[in-house]
User: Which sequence fits this backbone?
């Protein structure tokens, strides 16, 4: 199967899966399904919706199409995901999905125009690139800085006494972090499985921390159930995104810096012996 056919099939699967999950959720709610079925629908629907929102942001951030053409497409795709998965769509649902897709778009565009020169490169057939999975002191300092910022934001969020406001300020950043980490794990240079072995379990942990920050201090009834549901939803979100991006990876696409693309795509020198 050609690369275009694989990516086209991936898009079709996402569209059909979104429509089917939304239809099943509406049908189950109208017929009063059991709590266990409701919980499974919650996990699957939310994981799919925010994985799709993240993929919209990733596509729009890494695409080489002109920005003025991409922005209307992002708005249309966000609206479609919202309407298809919420049985008609609401302004709140659209806002939540946009708060995942648009920050990813902005982050990737910023990285693309920074000194890093991040870009999506199509490697020639047969070209294999090996890069060890390792952390440098720069990675450690960056991770420490991100954790410090998140903890500082969390202290400010915890001072708010409105549950919906706290949820909006907590969950979308968690969805964005899971999507960006999964993007790095799947489309980065080198083997993806060691990185996914770190990212996917971490996504489950991010779900538990976010739920505690939102519901734990409001003494929400059924907190234990919500803790497990959101943990599973963010973990499944990472899995859905990873599987989707691995399909893109199988088509030869890699996320590289400008320097890496110059080295990998440079023509091999002609030997004098030849």
Assistant:
């Amino acid at each position: 199967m050609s690369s275009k056919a694989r990516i086209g099939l991936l898009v079709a699967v996402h569209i059909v899966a979104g429509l089917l999950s939304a239809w099943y959720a509406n049908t189950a709610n109208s017929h009063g399904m059991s709590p266990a079925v409701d919980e499974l629908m919650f996990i699957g629907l939310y994981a799919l919706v925010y994985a799709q929102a993240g993929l919209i942001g990733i596509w729009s951030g890494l695409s080489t199409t002109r920005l003025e053409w991409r922005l209307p497409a992002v708005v249309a795709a966000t609206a479609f995901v919202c309407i298809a998965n919420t049985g008609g769509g609401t302004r709140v649902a659209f806002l939540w999905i946009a708060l995942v897709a648009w920050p990813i778009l902005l982050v990737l565009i910023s990285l693309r125009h920074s000194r890093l020169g991040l870009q999506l490169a199509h490697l020639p057939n047969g070209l294999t690139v090996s890069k060890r999975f390792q952390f440098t002191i720069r990675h450690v300092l960056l991770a420490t800085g991100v954790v410090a910022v998140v903890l500082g934001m969390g202290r400010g969020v915890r001072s708010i006494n409105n549950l919906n406001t706290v949820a909006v300020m907590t969950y979308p950043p968690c969805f964005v972090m899971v999507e960006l980490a999964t993007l790095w794990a799947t489309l980065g240079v080198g083997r993806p499985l060691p990185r996914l072995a770190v990212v996917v379990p971490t996504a489950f942990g991010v779900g538990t921390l976010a739920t505690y920050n939102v519901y734990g201090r409001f003494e929400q009834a059924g907190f234990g159930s919500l803790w497990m549901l959101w943990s599973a939803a963010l973990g499944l979100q990472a899995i859905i995104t990873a599987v989707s991006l691995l399909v893109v990876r199988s088509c030869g696409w890699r996320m590289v810096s400008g320097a890496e693309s110059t080295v990998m795509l440079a023509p091999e020198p002609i030997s004098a012996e030849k």
Q: What stands out?
A: The CA atoms of residues 150 and 222 lie 26 Å apart. The chain has nine helices and two strands. The beta strands are 119-122, 253-256. The mean pLDDT is 76.
